[in-house]
Amino acid sequence: xGKKTEVNVDINVTKIVKYACVxxxxxxxxxxxxxxxxxxxxxxxxxxxxxx
Length: 52
Prior knowledge:
Blueprint: H1 13-42, H2 44-49
């Protein structure tokens, strides 16, 4: 009389780890690029060239 209900859940841990690593790498690259750009703008080379 009762209905049989079945649920299949497939968790792909490999994809989760892969995308988490890619996202983390992108975040780290953006942070380092921002710091490098700030240091470059403060440098004497850019102080002379960037103001013109």
